Amino acid sequence: MPKIPNEYLDLFQKKSFAHLATVMPDGSPQVTPVWVDYDGDYIVINTARGRVKERNMPLGAKVAIEIMDAENPYRYIQVRGHVAEVTEAGAREHIDQLSIKYTGKPFGPLRPGEVRVIYKIAPDKLDLH
């Protein structure tokens, strides 16, 4: 499994938004902007149960993620990979961590019945620009 090169790790440490591409049941692409994290092995995103991207990402699903440097839009990384892990464990705490990174404050209260989910995406191929 390829690792994110050191010279691109800053994209995961600052407020770089990612674009997550998934595949709909009819085979058409679906793209969503997401907050993104990296744990040293996996790209980590967080969503709520019932959303389109969540339904499109069962374990093993193929996905692509593009993360652009807001300070230099010609510098970006594209990762093609697959969903290696799906868990609700720690997801509430994780969305708070992401929210603090991107907004400066915790995520806030969840909607009634909202269940957060963490997706760990294993990189299969990296394109660096």
TrEMBL record:
Which GO-annotated molecular functions does the record name?
A: coenzyme F420 binding; oxidoreductase activity, acting on the CH-CH group of donors
Supply the InterPro entries for this chain: F420-binding_dom_put (IPR019920), F420H2_bilvrd_red/Heme_oxyg (IPR052019), Pyridox_Oxase_N (IPR011576), Split_barrel_FMN-bd (IPR012349)
The cellular component terms of Gene Ontology attached to this UniProt record, alphabetical and capped at eight, are:
cytosol
- SUPFAM superfamilies hit by this protein: FMN-binding split barrel
Q: Where is the Pyridoxamine 5'-phosphate oxidase N-terminal domain?
A: 5-106
Q: Which keywords does UniProt give here?
A: Oxidoreductase
User: Mind telling me which Pfam families this protein's record contains?
Assistant: PNPOx_N (PF01243)
This one is known as PPOX class F420-dependent oxidoreductase
The organism of origin for this protein: Candidatus Thermofonsia Clade 3 bacterium
